[in-house]
Specification:
This is Putative signaling protein. With about 280 residues, the protein is α/β, with parallel strands linked by helices. Helices cover about 45% and strands about 20% of the residues. Bound molecules: ligand C2E and calcium ion (3 copies).
């Protein structure tokens, strides 16, 4: 926050100035990283009630020239503020659809669904639906193999516009997931009318399972029941313990994701994991 100086000129304290300079540096580095191919997609497995891997969430990592891996929390918010999320999001979409094409040649991988995160800014961009369609068509990938994870924040500004975009994406045949469910501004009334295929229970609720919190258990069981009633797939994120798994499965959760089944990992490692599981 700026402070007005005596004659109305804004000044910054040195610490703040350093922080701003660092931000600008990060912004330049990130713009360069996208062009220089320093971004990587890590994959985190999603499993069904039998523990079989049925899909993956793609999570971006920034591998800097010195080899250090920057987590998305350190650059996605900045990318959203600066608009760099648009080229970054396009890159993710290109990578994901290319990967789905590669997987078509492998029986075990061809059945998987791949989820990508779409930020609100990307979702609101007028050309978004078209770019999704083009990326799929270019790679010759069945749209249903791709899932777009969208958070409730897209409904904040203009619900009518968001609804229209979702319906257009649904008509393309891509799968739609509502990410971080339970933390935002969802109203039950619109959840019921929007074409989501999957709801993802936010990991905050899952993390508190097993601490005998009646409230968190009530929220989770209610979300699962709601999703099932609406004929959506319910996926719980952040599953780490057997106890959490048991609770979720006994209450009808369809899909699970979390460190218990694998951390986000490089592609080769993910593919090896899938190949190691017994065939049906
Ligand atoms: P998210 O979409 O909610 O992703 C799930 C986050 O939870 C990931 O963090 C994942 O590593 C972490 N996680 C998964 N299982 C567990 C678990 O069992 N325990 C705990 N404690 N954590 C778990 P990550 O990879 O650091 O990503 C953070 C956020 O960055 C994501 O949250 C997503 O909002 C954003 N993000 C990541 N990749 C992209 C991207 O390609 N595009 C956009 N727009 N956002 C992205
Ligand atoms: Ca997500
Ligand atoms: Ca659908
Ligand atoms: Ca999430």
């Amino acid at each position: 926050v700026k402070q007005a100086g005596r004659n109305g000129v804004a000044f910054f304290d040195p610490e703040m100035e350093a922080a701003i300079r660092q931000r600008h540096q990060l912004q330049r580095d990130l713009a360069h990283a996208i062009e220089a191919g320093e971004l990587r997609l890590y994959l985190q497995p999603q499993v069904d009630v039998r523990g079989r891997v049925v899909g993956a969430e793609a999570l971006v990592r920034w591998q800097r020239a010195d080899g250090t891996l920057v987590p998305p929390g350190a650059f996605i918010p900045l990318a959203e503020e600066t608009g760099l999320i648009l080229p970054l999001g396009d890159w993710v979409l290109q990578q994901a659809t290319q990967l789905l094409r590669q997987w078509q040649g492998d029986a075990a991988l061809a059945a998987l669904r791949l989820s990508v995160n779409v930020s609100a800014r990307q979702f609101r961009d007028p050309g978004f639906g078209e770019r999704v369609q083009q990326a799929l068509a270019q790679q010759g990938v069945a749209p249903g193999r791709l899932e777009l994870e969208i958070t409730e924040s897209v409904f904040l500004e203009d619900l009518d516009h968001a609804r229209a975009t979702l319906q257009a994406l649904d008509a393309l045949g891509v799968s739609l997931a509502l990410d971080d469910f339970g933390t935002g501004y969802s109203s039950l009334a619109y959840l019921a009318e929007l074409p989501f295929d999957t709801i993802k229970i936010d990991q905050r609720f899952v993390a508190r399972l097993g601490q005998h919190s009646r409230q968190d258990e009530a929220i989770i069981t209610t979300i699962i029941a709601l999703g099932r009633k609406l004929r959506m797939q319910v996926l719980a994120e952040g599953v780490e313990t057997e106890q959490q798994e048991n609770y979720l499965l006994s209450h009808g959760c369809h899909l699970l994701q979390g460190f218990r089944y694998g951390r986000p990992m490089p592609l080769e490692q993910f593919e090896a994991l899938v190949h190691a599981q017994p065939r049906d």
